[in-house]
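Running co-folding for succinic acid.
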Amino acid sequence: MRHFLAGIALAALVLAAPIAQAGGPIVIKFSHVVAENTPKGQAANKFKELVEQRLAGKVKVEVFPNSQLYGDNKVLEAMLLGDVHIAAPSLSKFSKFTKKLQIFDLPFLFKDIHAVDRFQKSPDGKKLLASMKKKGLLGLGYLHNGTKQLSASRPLRLPAEAKGLKFRIQSSDVLAAQFEAIHALPLKKPFSEVFTLLQTKAIDGQENTWSNIYSKKFFEVQEYITESNHGVIDYLIITSVEFWTELPDDIRGEVQKAMDEAVAFGNKVALDKAVADRKKILDSGRSKILELTAQERDAWVKAMKPVWKKFEKQIGKDLIEAAAKSNG
Ligand code: SIN
């Protein structure tokens, strides 16, 4: 792995495209995998709007949604090669570059999205933005999507009912361990394949946020959604150190400001969509939403929480404790 990353870093030095064509504007390519009507899709479009308004003629932003340019499994390598400049992969997709961000995958660590927000804004959370700097990647900020629900072809009220079922997961060893803890079979697959895998019954279920389940129509091919809120899908807005440091100072300042505003906008969309898209799914009658009793929820916590211990060394005990404190 170290050789692979070193190779990419070297190639990036040799191949990185100049950021501005002679006399033309700087082009920022922003690639993501979700639909435009999601928190991330809307934040990306807001970023484009703000940058092109404030830096007209100097900077142009091209947004590529729906994995049109890269899936999350390729985008970071492409960024190190200078082929894309900004992306916002889910925090679950960085483990090739840092083990620290795995903290966001620990099941039942955060009691809600506000606790996640408090941790991200804390000194420990902010420090994580620079955790991949030596590998050539820099976090510009966090963006919310929301808490995860568990969808399946069967009603899942208790963890034992998931035994033997196949679940698609993001490329995270913590998420693999989480499903192994309930004796289910996790399969790491790109987001762009989830609908087809569910539709063809190649898998039995998946975990995602209300806005992703709605915008990608997973609810049309999953009979049940357990409202488990067992984890979070949030994003790291990421760029390459090289691209970022090559930007002229005044432009970099304006781009960061536009990104901060786009994130604030996207976070508001995320809060609204967590409620609105759940309602749309409920009203559709296509999926049955299962609300857990306190006792049922405790059974999921008991089954999944041992995963924390397994990853304590990689993530850091102190960091886990700091995150847990954000629950207030
Ligand atoms: C995303 O929200 O960017 C994708 C999450 C996933 O891969 O499930």
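Result summary
Confidence is low (pLDDT under 50) at residues 4-18.
The chain has one domain: 2-325.
Job closed.
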